[in-house]
Structure formats: C-alpha cells, structure tokens
Amino acid sequence: MALAEDFTIEEKEEQERMVLESVDRFLERDVEPFAHELEADDTYPQEIVEKMIDMGLFGATIGTEYGGLGLSVSTYAKIVERVSTVWMSVSGIFNSHLIMAAAVERSGTEEQKAKWLPRFASGELRGGIALTEPDAGTDLQGIRTRADKSGNGYALNGAKTWISNAVEGGVLAILAKTNPEAEPRHKGMSLFLVEKSSEFKVDKRMKKLGYKGIDSGEFVMEDLFVPGENLIGGTEGRGLQQILGGLELGRINVAARGVGIAKACLLKSVEYSQLRKTFGKPISEHQSIQIKLADMATQVESARLLTEQAALAYDMGERCDMEAGMAKLVASEAALSNSLEAMRIHGAYGYSKEFDIERYYRDAPLLAIGEGTNELQKLIIAKQLLARYPV
Amino acid sequence: MKVLVPVKRVIDYNVKVRVKADQTGVELANVKMSMNPFDEISIEEAIRLKEAGHAEEVIAVSVGVQQCQETIRTALAMGADRGIHVVHDGDIEPLVVAKILKELVDKEGPSIVIVGKQAIDDDSNQTGQMLAALLGWGQATFVSKVEIEGDSIKATREVDGGLETISVMLPAVLTTDLRLNEPRYASLPNIMKAKKKPIEQFTPVELGVDPSCRIEILKVAEPPTREAGVKVSDVGELVDKLRNTAKVI
Q1: Higher-scoring residue by pLDDT: A191, B248
Q2: Would you say domain A127-240 falls under CATH 3.30.1330.30?
Q3: What is the architecture of the domain spanning B2-245?
Q4: Model confidence at A6, in pLDDT bands (50, 70, 90)?
C-alpha cells in the first residue's frame, strides 16, 4: 500500500503536504461550519460524505492499481488526526470502510480485488466491518454468528451490533463461524463481503453518548444467503487472521483520532485562557491554568509521536501490534484527560452545548473502549514485551 | 484559446506576520507559504473557462525561488494543464514580473491573462495593469463577474460605490476581485496526477528581462500598538479631554 515507486522522498513529502492542505480546506469550508448542528441533531452528514467522495478520501489507502490513492498509513493517520480535530464522526465514515478494503486488498483473491476495490476506492460502494456482537467485542473468538454451507454459497445466522456504516453503507465485511467446533477457535472463522439487498437491510441505529451523526447499526441475520465467491480469500478459516491484520490499522486510526481530539481541546484552551479574565488578568497568567496547559500539550505531543511511530512501522511492514497498542492507549487517554481539563479551563462555557468542548468530552470515551479496550492494549503491550525480551 | 495565470507564493493568509528584528523585512523562516488567495481565484476562473468550453489550455506561471514549484503544483492539482517557473532568488518587483509575463505571452500566445488584483504580501496592485500597458491590451481590473461574448469579454468591476459593467476586446488582461468565485480545493486524486504535468523552467535573463530592483526597501516596521483608553467620570471631563487632550473638537 506504499506510494507508487516512481516518486522520490521529496515528491512524497510535497504530495503529503498538498494532500493535508486540501484536507484542511475541506474541513474549514465543508465540515467545521456544519458540524455543531449536525452533531446536535444526530444527523448523518450526507453532504459531507459527497464532498469526501469528490475528494477521493474513500480510496485513501487503497492501491493506485485499483483506482485508490495509495497513501501511506503515516499520511493517512495525519488526515484522520486533522478530521478528528474538527469532528471525529466524519473520520468514522471512511475509517472502517478502509479497514474493510484493506482486508480485501491483503487477503482477497485476484478476482475479488478486481471486482470490489475499484468500487470501494471511488466511494461508489461504501461500507464497514461487522465484527461485534451482543456477547462478543474485544474477544472476537467468542462470536456466535454462523455461516453454514447452502447451495453454492453460505447461509448466515446471528446478530451484529455497534457496526459503523451499517445503515448508510452499501456493503459490510461480516465475520462468522464456518466451523463452530474448530480448535483453536479462530480456525473456524471466516470473513464475508455482503452487499445490501432486499434480503439484507439495516434500519436500527444505536443511540449514543457521543460519536453522533455516523450510524452505528444493529442487525439480525436469518438464513441470509451469501454467494461462495464472497468468502474473502476463497478459503474458510482465515477470517480472524484477515481482520486482525486490519485491526492494527484500526488502532493507529483510533490513536490518530485521539491525537486530534486532544489537540482540539488544547488549542481551544490555549485561546480561551488568554481571553477569559479573572482577578484582573487573563486566566492564562494563573499558574494553575499554566500547569494544565503544559500537561495537555505534553500529552498531545507524546500521543502524536507514538502514533507517527506506529504508522511508520506499519508502512515499513514491521510487526507493530505493540506500537499500535501503545499509540492507541496513550492517545485515547490523552483525549479523555484533555477533554476534561479543557472543560475545567472553560468552566461553565465548557459545560454548555453552545461550545464544542462538551462534544469532545462525550466523543473521547469511545476511543478508550472501542477497537479493543485500553485494558486489552496493556495486555498486548505486556505480551509483546515479554516475547521480545525473553530470559 | 489559451489562458495564462500568474500565481505568487506568499505567506499563508492564516499566519500572523512578524517583522524581522533588524527591520529589513518580514520573517519567512519556518513560515507556512501558500498561493496568493487572489491567484487561486484567477486559477479557478481559468479552469471554469476551460470547463465551459471557452478555453483549451490553462498555463500557470510563477516567478521566484525554487519552492514556487509547489505553488505551481497546487495550480496544476486544481486543474491547470501545465506550468512555467521563472527561477529567481531574491526580491522581485511588479514591473519586472510584468515584463517577464509579457515575454511569456509573446511566446505562448494566450488570449486572456488572469492576474490576481494584488498579492496579500505587498499589496502592490500593479502587475496586471503594467502587463496590459506593456502588451498594449485592454484590461478589466477588479472583476467580480466574467462572461465571454464572442471576441470580447463582458466584465463586472467592483468600483467605489457600486458595480461597473464593461466590455473589453480580446486579447485582454483581467485582474480578479475576491467575489469573482470560490476557488475549489484540489481533490486528492488530482494532487497525485499533478506530478505528471510538465513544468518548464526559465531564468529572467533567458527571457531577455533584467530582474534587478529599482526600489530599495529602507525599513519595515510593525504598526504602533494601540494605547490603552482612560475612563472619564462625567460629560464635562469627556468634552474637556476631547478638546484639549485629543484635540478632535
């Protein structure tokens, strides 16, 4: 998924700069002025999605041979950070779409890549990944959705919940068990691309504390037929492996969102603290506020550096579960604590719906919970640490 | 027909400009640079003329340091077809730029040159007018609306107290005002494709233009900071201060 070989390092840097400038323009003109109202009403940002199609964002990390941009994950993480600085929900619309695309690009057959990726890259067909179930999230091996052989395909039975883009998207990569008796359990799991149809519709949207605007859907499958050619990779039993490769990308993604929210909270606090006066001087001149600002800024920078490091490792093709875990952990905690500190600095205005701070405060917790809880990240980090330094 | 659009690399409009400590100019080190916003409007208008079938080719030109290629590349990503970079380190004045543009017009034969009415760094507002004079072409400055009518252009100009509509014969020089259009931002696929579009390079001397400056900048200073106000206790004191301290009544 690296940039095309014929570009020099300088050219790649220039392209990244231009890409980020264009993203900034898009955010300034087409997202920022509308985010507050759309969020307050929990409205799906259809017009913003159309602009993102025009911009080519749905093909960001898909290879150029399939009509994508072939951006490095490092550049992509910077895009996600910028988008989340303005409104995190918008990044969710292309994040899980691209994780689905990455699974097809990495593990799909040549026919599957040729059939699906150009449609994913253009944004004509958008979707996400359907992993989580009412009884299984972080522990994916515990899913209960089954895919049983039926004619020249499979019949899917089960339920999925908290699926981003499930209502508005046109296709989902659904994780199911093709052999529920398999040991180890992951060897019985497979990933299917399922397009929406008259038999497969999703209407139910979850109500959420934050992360509004984007649809998080819930659906039940009863003998839902999927053609055999839609089994990603063409071989059963590889589903978990296929999706776990994408989860590192997902964690870098969440880390970049965390950096974005933490940075937004910092920037707004730096500005507000110089305008708001108490006891005859701007609150930025009080030491208690200065200490908060220093802590917030340090958190932003450490989260950003860890995220860049994980993205770089991913781009180099190195093992990066520990790096991605650290980035996700630190960045999501930075978002959480900075949103609370920003609220303390803004006082009543931070608590008010008139300003954005309360939105960051509601959006941030998702990052600590989603894409593998932070507690799980610590276990991943510790396991890798012990594996890399055995006695 | 061809449309030629000069684009200038300037300090980004969001940057708070600081004067150098030695007052020889403004701080440019580690400062974000972008295309002059009026030039973005010019490029947008040229691309629209192409999309409407009036123009066949849009050529973006920049005069200045090596990094001006980035500015040209931005124009190419927006939709210009090719670029010309006239390489010059150091200061450059509107008259020199106008002379360079005249040489390029003679070489390329465009029917319209669309120039930003001014650059946001020095606010000179001279290049377009000087170019029209050097070429002996008609000009429509500060345009907020452009319509092609056969071999002429109907242009609406923003003038003091209202709008003026004029007709100019082609070929012509236009200078763009803020309200002419809202420039697009480049789509990401077009940014990738821009790399493949050609940029030709010349030096001013190769074009037969002497780039030396005729103006010497003696000093650049920040505007004086506003002094704090005072509170007055009654109308009598206010009138007294207005008359005797401020001397405005």
Answers
A1: A191
A2: no
A3: 3-Layer(aba) Sandwich (3.40)
A4: low
* Residues in CB range of B151: below 8 A, 6 or more apart: B169, B170
Spatial distance between the Cα atoms of B102 and B115, rounded to a whole number of angstroms: 13
Output A370-374 pairs: Cβ under 8 A, ≥24 positions apart: A370/A254, A371/A247, A371/A250, A371/A251, A371/A253, A371/A254, A371/A328, A372/A138, A372/A247, A372/A251, A372/A325, A372/A328, A373/A138, A374/A328, A374/A329, A374/A332, A374/A333
Determine the pLDDT at residue A1. Answer: 40
- Which residues from B are below 8 Å from A when comparing CB atoms? 34, 70, 73-74, 77, 185-189, 191-192, 194-195
Q: A residues 129-158 near B, CB within 8 Å?
A: none
Pick the CATH number of A9-122 from 1.10.540.10, 1.10.3720.10, 3.20.20.30, 1.10.600.10: 1.10.540.10
Catalytic residues of A: 371
pLDDT the model gives residue A2: 42
- A54–B contact, CB cutoff 8 A: yes
pLDDT at residue A215 in the model: 92
Q: How confident is the model at residue B245 (pLDDT cuts 50, 70, 90)?
A: confident
Find the mean pLDDT for residues A329-346. 98
The correct CATH number of A246-388 out of 1.20.140.10, 3.90.79.10, 3.40.50.1820, 2.60.120.10 is 1.20.140.10
pLDDT tens for A130-141 read 999 998 877 888
Nearest by CB to residue B188, choosing from A11, A17, A19, is A19
Where exactly are the structural domains of chain A?
9-122, 127-240, 246-388
Average pLDDT value over all residues in chain A: 93
ipTM above 0.85, yes or no: no
